[in-house]
Amino acid sequence: MELIVAKFGGTSIGNGRRIKKAARSVVKEYMKGKKVVVVVSAINKTTDELLQIVDEAMEDAVTEKQLAEIVSMGEMTSVRIFSSAIEALGVKSEYIDPFMDEWPIITDSNLLNAKVDFEATEKKSKELLKLLDQGIIPVVCGFLGRDPNGYITTLGRGGSDITAFLLGHCLKADEVIIVTDVGGVMSTDPNKLQGAKKLDKISVEEMRDLATHGAQVLHPHALKYKDPDINAKIIGFEHGDLSAPGTEIIGPSKNKMVKTTTLNPEPISVVAVVGEKILNKPGILAKLTSKLAENSINIIGISTGQNSVTIFVDKKDADEAHRLLHDVVIADDNLSSLSLGRDIAMITISSPDFIDTPGIISEITKPLRDNDLNIVEISSSQTSVVIFVDWNDGKKAYELVRGVLE
C-alpha cells in the first residue's frame, strides 16, 4: 500500500477554510487506498506572534526551555485542529505531539536549534506504522523534537520541512509532498520579475543551493534526508489536491549522499589576467570566458580580485587558453597583461553535512597549515570545498585533508 508524507505549511492552513480544504485533500488520498502521514506547521504567523509576545513580556529573561515550550504551542494547536478536521470528514485520525509515547522525532539537548538523533528517530518512527495499519491518519507536529530528558526541542525556523523528509526517510514512504503558498519552485521570485515560470523539475543539489541563497520555498537542511528512491514534490495549497502537479524534486545522486575526497588525476594550469580595477569594469569577465567557450575550452574554476581574474583550465588546454586570452588582453584597453602559471593539483572535499557545519573550512585547511603546504586557491559551496595546491604537494595534501571526513 502506497505511503505518503504530506506537509502543510503555515499559510496553507492559515484559516478554517484552508484547513478544511487541506483535510479533504488528505482524506481523498486515503480513500484511494493510500496511507497518509500528515506534518503541519503552526497556523500562519502564530510563531511570530508568540515570539513577539514573549519579547514584550520577558525580553531576555526567558529561558531556552521556556521559549521552546512556548513556541511549540503553534504546532500543538495545528495538529489538534487538523486531526479534528479529518475526523469531521469521517476518517479516524490522531494528533502526535512531543508529550506522547508515539512521538517520533528524537534530538540532542540543544533546545532551540536541535540536531536529529537519526538512529533513535528511525526506531521511534515505527510507532506511526502501527497507527497506519489500523487505518488511522497520524497528524504530527512539524518543527518540534524531544530530547533524551523529555524536554521539547525545536529544529529551527522552517523545521517542518525537516520533519517531513525525515519521516519520509524513516518510514520508507513512496512520496513526500510539501504543500505551500506557491504552486512549486519558480525560476525566480515572481514578486520581483513578472516573467518568472514554474519549474517542472529541480534536482536536490539545485534546490539546496537555491534555498541556501534565500529562496523561501524549502528549508535547505531538510534535503539531506531526501532519499533518492522517494518521490518528492512541492505544490500549491490552492489546488486542494495532493495529486496536483507542482515541482518534482529529483535525486539526490547516490554519490552526493556520501562524504568524499578526490584528487584530480591530471594537473590544472592557472592563467592570470591583470588590469587596473578590472573588477569594476562591466563585461571583462564575459569577454574572457566567452573566448574560451567559443573554442571549447572548459573552465574548471575562476576567481576574481580587484585587479585580476584567475582562470583554472586543464593542463592540456593551457597553451591554447593562454594564446586566446592574450588576444583578448591586447584588444582591450582595460587589460594590461596575463601569465601562465605553474601546474597545480585540485582536491575536492564533499559532504551533505557541510551546509550546517560551522568552521569546516578551518578544519580542512588546518592540517595543510600544520605541514607548511601552501594553498594556491580555495573555493566552496554548500556541500563541497575545492582546494588548489602546488602539483608536487597534491598527493600529500590529499592524504592530509581526507582524514577530516573520517
Architecture blueprint of SSEs:
Elements: E1 3-8, H1 16-31, E2 35-40, H2 46-58, H3 64-88, E3 93-96, H4 118-133, E4 137-141, E5 144-146, E6 152-154, H5 159-170, E7 175-180, E8 201-203, H6 204-212, E9 231-236, E10 247-250, E11 260-263, E12 268-274, H7 284-294, E13 301-304, E14 308-314, H8 318-331, E15 337-350, H9 360-370, E16 375-380, E17 384-390, H10 394-402
Parallel strand pairs: 1-2, 1-7, 2-4, 3-4, 7-9, 8-10
Antiparallel strand pairs: 5-6, 9-10, 11-15, 12-14, 12-15, 13-14, 15-17, 16-17
Sum up the structure in keywords.
10 helices; Carbamate kinase; single chain; alpha/beta; 2 domains; seven-stranded antiparallel β-sheet; VC0802-like
Description:
The protein is α/β, with parallel strands linked by helices and 406 residues long. It has two domains: 3-253, 3-Layer(aba) Sandwich (Carbamate kinase); 260-405, VC0802-like. It has ten helices and 17 strands. The chain has helices at 16-31, 46-58, 64-88, 118-133, 159-170, 204-212, 284-294, 318-331, 360-370, 394-402; strands spanning 3-8, 35-40, 93-96, 137-141, 144-146, 152-154, 175-180, 201-203, 231-236, 247-250, 260-263, 268-274, 301-304, 308-314, 337-350, 375-380, 384-390. It has an eight-stranded mixed beta sheet, sandwiched between helices. Strands 11, 12, 13, 14, 15, 16 and 17 form a seven-stranded antiparallel beta sheet that branches. A hairpin with a 5-residue loop joins β5 (144-146) and β6. The two termini are 39 Å apart. The model has no long low-confidence stretch (mean pLDDT 92). Residues 273-352 form the ACT domain. It catalyses: L-aspartate + ATP = 4-phospho-L-aspartate + ADP. GO terms for molecular function: aspartate kinase activity; ATP binding. Its EC number is 2.7.2.4. This is Aspartokinase.
